[in-house]
Design goal:
The protein is an alpha/beta fold. It has two domains: about 55 residues, DNA polymerase, domain 1; about 300 residues, Aldolase class I (TIM Barrel, Alpha-Beta Barrel), CATH 3.20.20. Helix content is about 30%, strand content about 25%. A hairpin with a 5-residue loop joins strand 5 and strand 6. Helix 1 packs across helix 2 and helix 7 runs parallel beside helix 9. The protein is globular. About 40% of the residues are buried. Bound molecules: S-adenosyl-L-homocysteine (SAH) and iron/sulfur cluster.
């Protein structure tokens, strides 16, 4: 009999599957807070239960195949799944300076973990390597949460350290909404990783009807829209999905999306030289976002093997940002973390293929 991935089970499911039910809480704590790698290490469980669990379940859906460390401290993981497919995740440590009660400057690292939701992707954006590699399958909830667990374990990140989760790795999370929403629940479980849903961001290429469904689930997660273009003609060229869900439908779905009053919807805008980087695009973007509590994140296009686009100049990038800021739109530039380790989505996966070939 094939073993079940125990990380695929919500705490409720686990408490229904084992007797007595209160053991589910203990098992969750061993898995997600004490980072054990075997059932034998679950010391407060009776031996018989340890053996029974070992028969039915496994707890290691992922294996680390490769780690690339960037000069800026970000770390990219390539994981192998049980069926030998691979996915990638990135740990992004961000140094922050704070002033403590005595007025001393203290440095504090905040962690963001970027995770994958599918092997490949059906959406097929022309600028994206994951899109080019086609679609293989959805990840299960446990395969999603395990990426965070493995990275926390591998970096000895204390169980109670806050981390942010962004679904910005491989795949379209809203095309795998059932497993992604289950993963969100498992992440936020108080006996598990205890990551508040407000620290989890789901990024989508703009599947409007799925955005509505996500809104109805009212998980409390943040929403990021990969916009990348401000008119349908260009967006359609970059992202063929725009034929089915155009910009207007996305904006309507965003307006209806429930969001914490203190938070904003993030719009990601991948800036490509000579394609969408001039002031007329910035102007249209301001118009489009009128009346929406938005935050724009400009991303330098990261050229890859055989890509048709180029990185914009810093001057154009800054001018674009300035236009938005001058017109009252909150806007940051995402420093291309880990450019030297091919950190944009799908790139490590692709590199591995070329290295092996
Ligand atoms: N499928 C979802 C989830 C994340 S996709 C979505 O599209 O929103 C991964 C992210 O990587 C997207 O924001 C995409 O814009 C970005 N990306 C893809 N190719 C890139 C490249 N060559 N350079 C920089 N960012 C890239
Ligand atoms: Fe899929 Fe996102 Fe890549 Fe588009 S950018 S192909 S939606 S992973």
């Amino acid at each position: 009999m094939e073993q079940i991935n125990i990380l695929d089970l919500s705490k409720e499911e686990l408490s229904n599957a084992i007797k007595p039910a209160f053991r589910a809480k203990q098992i969750y704590q061993w898995l997600y807070q004490k980072y054990v790698t075997s059932f034998e290490e679950m010391k407060n469980l009776p031996k018989e239960l340890q053996l029974a669990l070992k028969k039915t379940y496994h707890l290691d859906p992922l294996r680390i195949v490769k780690i690339e460390v960037s000069k800026d401290g970000s770390k990219k993981y390539l994981f192998e799944l049980k069926d030998k497919n691979t996915v990638e995740s990135v740990l992004l440590p961000m140094k922050q300076e704070q002033v403590d009660e005595e007025g001393k400057r203290v440095h504090h690292t905040r962690y963001t973990i970027c995770i994958s939701s599918q092997v490949g992707c059906k959406i097929g954006c022309t600028f994206c390597l994951t899109g080019k590699s086609g679609f293989k399958r959805n990840l299960s909830a446990g395969e999603i949460t395990s990426q965070v667990l493995m990275i926390k374990r591998d970096n000895a990140i204390a169980e109670n350290r806050r981390v942010n989760i962004v679904f910005m790795g491989m795949g379209e999370p809203l095309d795998n909404l059932t497993n992604v929403s289950k993963a969100v629940h498992i992440f936020s479980d108080i006996d598990g990783l205890s990551i508040s849903t407000r620290r989890q961001t789901i990024s989508t290429s703009g599947l409007s009807s799925q955005i509505e469904k996500l809104g109805q689930l009212d998980l409390g997660v943040l929403l990021a829209i990969s916009l990348h273009a401000v008119d349908d003609t260009l967006r359609q060229k970059l992202m063929p999905i725009n034929k089915a869900y155009n910009i207007e439908s996305i904006m309507n779905a965003v307006r209806a999306f429930p969001i914490d009053a203190r938070k904003r919807v993030m719009f990601e805008y991948l800036v490509m030289k000579g394609i969408n980087d001039d002031q007329s695009n910035a102007k249209k973007l301001v118009k489009l976002l009128h009346g929406i509590k938005a935050k724009v994140n400009l991303i330098y296009f990261n050229p890859h093997h055989g890509s048709d686009f180029d990185r914009p100049s810093e001057k154009d990038m800054l001018a674009f940002q300035q236009y938005l800021v001058d017109h009252g739109v909150l806007c940051t530039i995402r420093q291309s973390k880990g450019i030297d380790i091919s950190a944009a989505c799908g790139q490590l996966h692709d590199k591995e293929k070329h290295d092996i070939a």
